[in-house]
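ok so I'm stuck.
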Amino acid sequence: TDDESWERLWSAAGNQGDASQPAPIALNEYAESFVQLPFRGVTACSQRSYIAIDSITIERKHRNASISFST
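replied:
not stuck anymore, here's the structure
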């Protein structure tokens, strides 16, 4: 899928430091929708350039909400 068909909800650029940085994202407006969360990473052309996703947490705020995962 090309980049134009996705809505960007969060972005980071540049050096984020050595510690994990939390980035909470509310998905309330998608409560009745099928949602896919793609991750895209672009690095520089260097041995010191890297991307890390340390942890992803999805919390259900409503008891009746369903959550399913696929990879």
